[in-house]
Amino acid sequence: MGGVRGPTLRELAVQALSSVERGYDLLAPKFDATPFRTPDWMLAATITALREHGPFERGLDVCTGTGAGLALLEEATSERPTGVDFSAGMLEQARAAHPDADLVRADARALPFEAAYDLVVSFGALGHFLPEERGPLFDGVYRALRPGGVFALPMSRAPKPTQPAYWLLTGFDLAMRVRNAVWRPTFVMYYRTHPRPALFADLNAAGFTVETTPMPGVGELIIARRPPG
């Protein structure tokens, strides 16, 4: 993307043996040239699915990375968007791509916002949170939303055991568990630690009402709403 060559195998190995924050600082300049960047078709499907739940004034992208979600918010909301991430390197890239956005460096498990947004989005970040960390994450998103506001989580259709992707993701998670058992600092990134029923239960526990909107050909958009009033 943008003429930037992707990371080498050596660079990916160094990242994988770093902490999450340091790893993404290292990867940031080449992140948009990797398969880990949220694809444009996912952003487009999310915008389409959100239309029936808006309009929205002010939006926040949690774990914004290089700012793929900011591009969505620039189209889906009427005010300048905000992105939050704890990687300074990723925020530097996001600032170059989205100079009009408000960018905040913070841990998503302790979001520093209070009733400031009517739309919060997050793309591909849930794997960076252990199951017990979703509570603080969702509590912070709930506080950041105005009453009646929406937390939108796009979810791709999960592969079946008969599909190669299922075993690829399962193998990746197993490799990460082995890595984290024998190496410090840990690098938390798992694909199969946030199944749909667990997400719904944690969102309900944070106070959200939860529904879904289909995204044909992609999966579904989880709409977690902070109750009005």
The number of helices is 8
Order of helices and strands: HHHEHEHEEHEHHEE
Question: What's the CATH class, please?
Answer: Alpha Beta
CATH topology: Rossmann fold
- Separation, N- and C-terminal Cα atoms: 44 Å
Q: Which percent bin holds the helix content?
A: 25-40%
Provide the CATH architecture: 3-Layer(aba) Sandwich
State the CATH superfamily name: Vaccinia Virus protein VP39
Round the mean pLDDT to the nearest integer and report it.
90
Q: Main β-sheet: number of strands, strand sense, barrel status?
A: 7 strands, mixed
Poorly predicted segments: none
- What is the approximate shape? globular
Task: Count every beta strand, where a strand is a DSSP E run of 2 or more residues.
Answer: 7
Query: Beta-strand level of the residues, as a percent range?
Result: 15-25%
* Rg (C-alpha, Å): 17 Å
Oligomer: single chain
Structural class: alpha/beta
Strand arrangement in the largest pleated sheet: 3-2-1-4-5-7-6
Number of structurally distinct domains: 1
Describe this entry's structure for a reader:
The protein is α/β, with parallel strands linked by helices and 229 residues long. It has one domain (40-225): Vaccinia Virus protein VP39 (Rossmann fold, 3-Layer(aba) Sandwich). The chain contains eight helices and seven strands. Strands 3-2-1-4-5-7-6 form a seven-stranded mixed β-sheet. Helix 1 (9-16) packs antiparallel against helix 2. The model has no long low-confidence stretch (mean pLDDT 90).
